[in-house]
Amino acid sequence: MNRDCIAPSILSADFARLGEEVDNVLRAGADIVHFDVMDNHYVPNLTIGPLVCEALRKHGVTAPIDVHLMVKPVDRIIPDFAKAGASYITFHPEASEHVDRSLQLIRDNGCKAGLVFNPATPLSYLDYAMEKVDMILLMSVNPGFGGQSFISYVLNKLRAAKQRIEASGRNIRLEIDGGVKADNIRDIAAAGADTFVAGSAIFGAAKADDPNRYDSVIKALRGEIAKARQAG
């Protein structure tokens, strides 16, 4: 079983001091830095590009960087993020003309590859792609904006994805993104997720002038995950 990982989404961070924000969440116990890359085409928002990834690496961030591409087409930008220091690159199958080719492109550029599924996107895209997938990301909101509420039927989809991973016999991470908070993360973990993206739940913590404010939030998230593991 993969180690459980907390992946704060920098979409909700203070961009005026992004390096400091990332340092603080990692110091507080986060494992992975999650990038939400939106193009105002595939999704209705415009966010960040490879230069931000490169800047965080130059700042000294050594933790894995998980780049979620909400862009169409995807192939053009994959090498740029790989060169900028991405560890994982995931994309939506609907945004690629050739899913297998895009997965292979990510791997050829030295990164781990993954597919992302919107709430109503079927998992059947995995039928012929599991051998090239290192991460499956399930969206529990419709992508485009932070701060949305968790869509509960995605829990059943998590269970189905977990079954596919176990049947494959491969070491594939199962990530969840959207509305993840301390009051629902136990159910999410019980359904099979091992990588938990949280944006506003972490970066929205009170006392913005306190660099230690993330400790209690991440500790609470981990505590709920531990309860799911003990019960299971």
Q: Which class do the helix and strand fractions yield? A: alpha/beta
Secondary structure: number of strands: 8
CATH class category label:
Alpha Beta
CATH architecture: Alpha-Beta Barrel
For the biggest sheet, the summary is: 8 strands, parallel
Strand content: 15-25%
What best-fitting shape do the alpha-carbon axes yield? globular
Q: First CA to last CA: what distance?
A: 13 Å
CATH topology: TIM Barrel
Question: CATH homologous superfamily, by name?
Answer: Aldolase class I
Helix-strand topology string? EHEHEHEHEEHEHEHH
Q: Please, how many domains?
A: 1
Q: Over all CA atoms, what is the radius of gyration?
A: 16 Å
State the oligomer.
single chain
Compute the number of helices.
8
Mean pLDDT: 94
Q: Major sheet: order of its strands? A: 1-8-7-6-5-4-3-2
Identify low-pLDDT runs. Answer: none
The percent of residues in helical segments reads 25-40%
What does this structure look like?
The radius of gyration is 16 Å and the shape is globular. The protein has an 8-stranded parallel beta sheet with strand order 1-8-7-6-5-4-3-2. The chain has a single domain, classed as Alpha-Beta Barrel (TIM Barrel). α2 (50-59) packs parallel to α3 (78-84). The mean pLDDT is 94. It has 232 residues and is of the alpha/beta class. The chain has 8 helices and 8 strands, in the order βαβαβαβαββαβαβαα.
